[in-house]
Amino acid sequence: xxRTVHCAKLDIDADGLDxxxxxxxxxxxxxxxxSRQAWQQWMAHQTMLINEYRLNPLxxxxxxxxxxxxxxxxxxxxxxxxxxxxxxxxxD
Length: 92
What we know:
- Keywords: Iron.
- This protein has helices at residues 24-33, 36-53, 60-75; strands at 4-6, 13-15.
- The protein is mainly alpha-helical.
- The chain has a single domain (4-75), classed as YggX-like (Orthogonal Bundle).
- Strands 1-2 form a two-stranded antiparallel sheet.
- The radius of gyration is 14 Å and the shape is globular.
């Protein structure tokens, strides 16, 4: 059964996530306030950050950076990193 949340990122009522995608209080906050659509947008942005900054997701410093960026992206908290010289791929 699908649950509906009011998405903090998109400011719409939409389908919520099936489970908390991150451990701890931040994961609970994401589960309660972020839609599937916004989470998919974050996953694409996170992939770009991992690739452009050549991050190892198992490295504690990289995970800390990604957590900070997740808060910025989903909840507009702090500065959102943009890799120098990054050009997004053109939409097909």
